[in-house]
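User: What would this chain look like folded?
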Amino acid sequence: MTESPEQRPHVVPRRRPRTSPARLRAAVTRLPQWWPLPVCVLLGTVSGLSYGLLATPQYEATSYAMAVAEKEANPSAALGYAQSYGRLVTSDATLSYAQGAAGEPVRALRSQVRSETSPDSPMIAVTGTSDDAGKAADIANAVIEAVIVSSGHVSQDTGVKLIKFTHAMKPDRPVSPSAPLGTGVGAAAGGLLGGLVLLVRPRHADRNVLAQVPGPSSAEDHTTTGERELVR
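Assistant: Here's the prediction, encoded as structure tokens.
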């Protein structure tokens, strides 16, 4: 005999148990209190290693110019004009003049050029940055030449002119962090972050003590109930 469809037992499909928030909180509570520290160190190490391996290497080349006072000018004026010309290195006028020799548009040169001056000497340092070593040297030399040409146009009025002190050379190694350095920096940052998390997170012992302290309403209800029983 064959069973009819009505006589066959109805099979209820099993549902996968869902992880409730209470179970998740209980699982986290059972972990040791110092678990954020190794997790943060691991995340920092992976992030630093990934940056060191995937980031494009950057190169820097630096050229120098010096402000020199003319015979009729005060020698101390060279220091002040060096500070002024150092601020003009990243101006649009200078970068527009240098973009042809640098081989980069003005918009790109704004982020690839920086200048430094010293309060003690009339020296200007122009640094070019690029992912190509030769291009970094070309940018630094083109911009320093543009500044020198600009200073020459007004040297008769200011009494100070710029002369090239050193020529930027092609760098032989990048300045961006390597994979070992990035890994070390990432691990250190992760350890610092993990330590801060341990300092600010609440402790299990404190929460247990707060949970065991009875509330004032419970104590008052118990006292009232006892008094009623004595009256009866």
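The mean pLDDT is 78. If you want, I can go into more detail on any region.
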